[in-house]
Amino acid sequence: MLIRKYFSQFLVLLCLAAAAAAQAQNLPNVVILATGGTIAGTGATTTTTTVGYTAAKVGVDALIAAVPELKKVANVRGEQTMQIASENMNNDAWLKLAKRVNTLLAQSDVDGIVITHGTDTIEETAYFLDLVVKSKKPVVIVGAMRPSTAISADGPINLYNAVLLAGSKEAIGKGVLVTLNDQINAGREVTKTNTSTLDTFKTPELGFLGYIQGSKPFFYRQSTRKNTADTPFDIMNLDKLPQVDIVYGYANMNPIALNAFVAAGAQGIIHAGVGDGSLNNTVVPSLTEARKKGVVIVRASRVGQGIVARNGEADDDKLDFVVSDTLNAQKARILLMLALTKTTDTKEIQKMFWEY
Q1: Per the annotation, where are the binding residues?
Q2: Among this protein's residues, is 326 annotated catalytic?
Q3: Does the structure show a pLDDT above 80 at 172?
Q4: pLDDT, tens digit, for every residue of 107-117?
Q5: Which of 98, 125, 289, 298 could disulfide-link to 322, CB 3.0 to 4.6 Å?
């Protein structure tokens, strides 16, 4: 009787193990690449939320262990790609991250990628990857506005939603996505709009792509601009990116910063002008001279929304300048860097700004 009892228990355990294995086989395989940021931050107390914490302290294994529910939606494994606060993100880190993403997505046993990231530069990393990832498989960037030790940390649910999204069929072919606060945004269009609130990430005029509700993504629109596998930008053999700097427009501005960037070897300048990318008379001579030296000039706007009209506030055809379309200055910088790896022809670069 005792042998029969233990044998029955063994059979039950065997059936449970088989069921778990079958479930794991049916789940998508998602790799989490951790880069640091607030989502991996710690504070001195549970009420240390948006001020006074230290970013990039918690490793990827601990982040995954803190959300056991991930096992229900995907087969998850993690890699610590880097561990930095996102204000320290740079071109070298982008190239390293993008190469790893492309390598992983080329594998048949990887269905999607989640990247944990600090919120300060999420929008830039998202757009960079949107241009250089060579796969239609989902890539989702996620962060948090409160550190992992906060009494109401948003990191765990954001990470759960990101893994869910990265493993979903609905996200395939949508470009690089950013999800926080149960909302889905396009990497090209999203921007951080508030210094500290949980709903900081928005696409103010064009709107969210969709929402995550009840452990399911709902898409209502998608970006019409080419992305990922449909772009010409290949970074797998690149060791560095061209130097492109941003000059900010303001009342009573002077050309000191612009001239310094050009003297330091800038191959491109993004001029974040007032209004519709307007140029102060004090900087036009320096911009014109820089262009004669081969520096590509892109007129963007500090406003942050709307189209910068070609030949609107400046004679771009005569000056041989490029306009940023709807890209803000920080994203225009990214596209110009990548464009300069392909060409210095301003007509071709302008086409890229209208296409991507």
Answers
A1: 86, 119-120
A2: no
A3: yes
A4: 999 999 999 99
A5: 298
